[in-house]
Specification:
This protein has 15 helices and four strands. By secondary structure, the protein is mostly helical. The strands form two sheets. The chain has a two-stranded antiparallel ribbon with strand order 1-4. A two-stranded antiparallel ribbon has the order 2-3. It binds protoporphyrin IX containing FE.
């Protein structure tokens, strides 16, 4: 198909047709169009305009282009967690929990890095063909899922998250929310990390998530573009998401280089990952995954990869990551109209 005529990167006329939007995203990914942008596809129960609640409209607006970066509003819990005043407020309960999480994550600790990856691995078992899966807590609720080879390395953060879940079990919180709240709290706890708008109210599902949905470091860009397209991400969204490797260290890709980082500043959320992956120096300290290297050079992704790597890259990547991760944290969630926003309880960016 040579004549793919699309004149706007934001394709507004496709907004009313989520299926069409998805088809275009797939075509653009396959044909290496320079007109990539983020996905606007709706998720869960947001398709029916007549059933939209106020919170559903907010989430819909973000999925379709409003910024996912939080403003500077903060919240101080007015009462102790166990008090009647606090237990009646979702924001108050989560504010106490987030205080606990941030203590463990401040300055981008190993637990923070694990929490970011854990949030991704719980959510990304979902794609359009899945009858279940997604951000449902199953990664930690099912021993089978956690034991899968692709989840190696998550043991410490999984044990810590289960301990938090036990501590707050009396406050009616889901594991699914705890996993995603830990991911966004960890992101903003890394110096430079964006503060991503965040909602809770996800339902747990103890069934092990569908298999074969998570990416592998030996996969090529086209396989990864297709894998993420099935989860409603454009190729641009994929490029933004893999930037999380700015705070990564590997153990199992090359065990001989245990703990080797994916950029030279693994405790800082910066765009050095993009420049250093393009630089291709896999010998002196940094270990570049084949998957990241392949994405950096593919027709459909190299332009955006270069933009994030270049001068001013941080300014465009931060909001792009926030947008893409906001979407990730809602994959497979069927009750988006009934979530509660708790963004104000998140720490401010460092
Ligand atoms: C192209 C898709 C991706 C592939 C193939 C991939 C693969 C990997 C691998 C192999 C590791 C190292 C595991 C180990 O040996 O310890 C890793 C680490 C990590 N990944 Fe990814 N990943 C991908 C996308 C993502 C995304 C979308 C996120 C977050 C949104 C993410 C966040 C992380 C983080 C934070 C770490 C570091 C964990 C730690 O230091 O404990 N990755 N990834």
């Amino acid at each position: 198909m040579k004549a793919l005529i699309i004149t706007s990167p934001f394709i507004p006329w496709a907004l009313g047709y989520p299926g069409l939007d998805h088809t275009i995203a797939k075509l653009q990914a396959r044909h290496g169009s320079p007109l990539q942008s983020r996905s606007t596809e709706l998720l869960g129960d947001l398709q029916d305009n007549n059933a939209l609640t106020a919170v559903g409209s907010e989430i819909k607006a973000i999925l379709q282009g409003a910024s996912a970066v939080a403003d500077g509003s903060t919240y101080t819990p007015p009462a102790a967690l166990a008090s009647a005043a606090c237990t009646q407020s979702t924001l108050c309960i989560w504010s106490h929990i987030i205080g606990d999480l941030s203590t463990a994550f401040t300055d981008c600790t190993a637990l923070a890095r694990g929490a970011i990856r854990q949030g991704f691995h719980d959510a990304a078992t979902w794609d359009r063909d899945s009858a279940y899966g997604g951000a449902d807590g199953s990664l930690l609720l099912s021993d089978d899922e956690l034991a899968r080879p692709e989840n190696r390395g998550l043991e410490d953060i999984a044990a810590q998250t289960k301990a938090w879940h036990g501590r707050y079990a009396g406050y009616n919180i889901s594991m699914a929310d705890l996993v995603q709240t830990a991911a966004v709290t960890a992101t903003v706890s890394c110096p430079g990390g964006p503060r991503i708008r965040h909602f809770v109210g996800r339902k747990d599902d103890g069934r092990p998530g569908p298999t074969g949905k998570l990416p592998l470091p030996e996969q090529d860009a086209q396989t990864l573009i297709d894998l993420f397209a099935a989860k409603t991400f454009t190729a641009d969204g994929l490029v933004a998401l893999v930037g999380a490797h700015t705070v990564a260290r590997q153990r199992f890709v090359d065990p001989g280089r245990y703990d080797a980082p994916q950029d030279s500043t693994p405790a800082v959320w910066d765009s050095a990952f993009y420049a250093q992956t393009l630089g291709g120096d896999n010998e002196t300290g940094v270990l570049i995954f084949h998957s990241d290297w392949s994405i950096s050079g593919h027709e459909a992704t190299k332009e955006r990869f270069g933009e994030f790597a270049g001068a001013g890259g941080m300014g465009v990547w931060g909001p792009a990551y926030a947008q893409a991760y906001f979407r990730m944290s809602l994959l497979g969630v069927g009750n988006l109209n009934y979530l509660t926003e708790i963004t104000q309880a998140l720490p401010l960016p460092r």
